[in-house]
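Just wondering, can you check both lines?
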Amino acid sequence: MGSSAPSLLTLRDPLDRTALLPWGFAHDFRRSMIGHGGNVFARARLAFERWAMFDLGWVRVANLQAPIATGQIVAVEAQTLGLWTLNLSRILDTVDEPGRFGFLYATTEMHVEQGEERFLIQIEPMTGAVFYELEAVSRPQRTLAWLGLPLTRSFQHRFGRDSHRRMAEEAVAPET
């Protein structure tokens, strides 16, 4: 997506769930509580900085040294049907506040999908509950992805489940 294209997601404002998406786009949203307290939030933040939410065995970030910074390219490798693909996305926006940390990225032409994905951790001030949110709007960008749309969607759902499981594990991991 070019920088002149309007963003479909945002880090700053609540997503307007009544807004219509462009043709063919699917909207996925998953939020889970991964623990309580400042230590859990700190561990989750460090996990984000290590790209742990992508460290799933079948998905991984190829450029682990990449910082979470606006303009940064993130190279995600994914194994599907025994083949590894490399998908590039560019970070559009970041948030780094005392109780919220995350980023929003958009796919590039070097990605099988077209769209945006938002990764956010936040701690609720009143309860201390720490939440991980993963939100995406996407549609296939390549013919093969369109032809295999049901399979493509199943991998997207699997990524959401596995990423949330991974962040929950990171949240309770002992400090090293």
